[in-house]
Design goal:
The complex is a heterodimer. By secondary structure, chain A is mainly alpha-helical. Chain A has 5 helices and 2 strands. Chain A has one domain: P-loop containing nucleotide triphosphate hydrolases (Rossmann fold). The longest helix of chain B has 40 residues. Classes of the chains: A mainly alpha, B mainly alpha.
């Protein structure tokens, strides 16, 4: 997983591999996921893969991150609060983070929807 | 009749189109190869791994094959040369056969079968799984990150393995000459050193570089152009390998023609 995360910084900011991987470890560690650094995709759970994808998106130079249907990505996700709490932990400097979902999941976002 | 002519025209246009696309891809890879910005840390890491997988992990099999082929083929060459009273030219016959022809060609075949197929399948699977699109979305240049390290590793690996193959073949050939002709090591070495010319080394180098380049470029291109289904992967590997073997024979013939000029 670390290589997958580090590649973004290595290519876009030309960071040396060790430094880019250290940044990846630091971000994974904030979510208490440092142990997945040396695992391969097939060995990770859906939730762990989701955070790896999010960290990779965080590392790009784009202003916004779009999370498309988190309940489809993490099939056993109980509560969106958990995702939002972890995203806050990552302290992303992105201007916007959007979550797109279908109307049948509307009730799951009740705390975040304005009337 | 018109439909028949149209179909010939269609096929001709399609063939020219695919040749143009392939040449464009080759040109793009060459441009990236000379651009220093292509050599970012991620690319260098992939390059090191690729050289390890292509050139280092194959070494035990490669050394074994070179030793066996070395003694058998040099034995056959010496046997034929003796039969036709060409003992005086044994040195140049061995050098031409081993350095100019057999080493680069055999190395190219071995690396094609082992790494060419692997690279073709890998890129085809990545293409079908949309991993290539994901890399593009993250602004990662596919040529810099995926293709260039493989092409460079192909060139480096085939060149060094060809030289190694020639050295092992010539060394194991000595064992045969020792038992078959009772030839002294000093005489054998002198025979080879007198026969070898700079031209032979240049031919070995250029052929190895050309082989290494196509051994990776053609499977990569074939994998990259895979249609969007899993059943297209074996077809892509099959097409890639056929084109690769045609290219290897084409380089071999071209090198022979250039040497005969």
């Amino acid at each position: 997983m670390l290589e997958n995360i580090a590649i973004i910084k290595e290519v876009q900011d030309l960071l040396p591999t060790k430094q880019a991987q250290a940044e990846g470890v630091e971000l994974l560690d904030r979510l208490k996921l440092a142990h997945i650094g040396n695992l391969r995709v097939a060995q990770c759970k859906a939730e762990e893969l989701f955070y790896v994808m999010f960290i990779r998106a965080m590392m790009t130079k784009k202003n916004s991150i779009v999370i498309d249907m988190p309940y489809a990505i993490i099939y056993n996700l109980q509560d969106i609060e958990q995702i939002i709490y972890n995203i806050e932990l990552l302290n992303s400097k992105k201007k916007n983070i959007f979550i797109f979902d279908t109307l049948n999941h509307k009730t799951r976002y009740k705390n975040y929807l304005s009337s | 009749m018109i439909k028949f002519i149209e179909s010939i025209g269609d096929k001709t246009i399609n063939s020219f189109n695919s040749i143009y696309e392939a040449l464009k891809f080759t040109f793009l890879c060459l441009i990236h190869m000379v651009n220093p910005h292509s050599y970012n840390p991620a690319m260098r890491m992939v390059l090191i791994k690729q050289i390890y997988f292509t050139a280092v992990t194959i070494l035990p099999l490669f050394i074994f094959m070179a030793s066996i082929f070395g003694s058998v083929i040099i034995g056959m060459v010496i046997g034929v040369a003796t039969q036709y009273s060409l003992q005086e030219n044994i040195g140049s016959i061995i050098v031409t056969f081993v350095i100019n022809e057999f080493s680069p060609f055999f190395t190219a075949l071995l690396i094609s079968l082992r790494s060419g197929t692997a690279v073709n399948t890998e890129i085809a699977i990545m293409s079908v799984n949309k991993e290539l699109n994901t890399l593009k979305e993250y602004d990662i240049d596919l040529i810099d990150y995926l293709f260039l390290p493989r092409i460079i590793s192909g060139v480096i690996s085939v060149t060094f393995l060809s030289i190694l193959f020639a050295l092992i073949m010539l060394s194991s050939g000595y064992i045969f000459t020792l038992f078959y002709m009772g030839m002294d090591l000093h005489i054998y070495t002198a025979l080879l050193l007198n026969a070898v010319e700079i031209k032979d080394l240049i031919v070995l180098l250029f052929k190895s570089i050309a082989f290494g380049f196509v051994i990776m470029l053609i499977p990569i291109y074939s994998g990259f152009k895979t249609a969007n289904s899993y059943s297209a992967i074996p077809i892509s590997v099959l097409n890639g390998m056929v084109k690769l073997f045609i290219a290897i024979f084409f380089i071999e013939v071209l090198a022979l023609l250039l040497q005969s000029l």
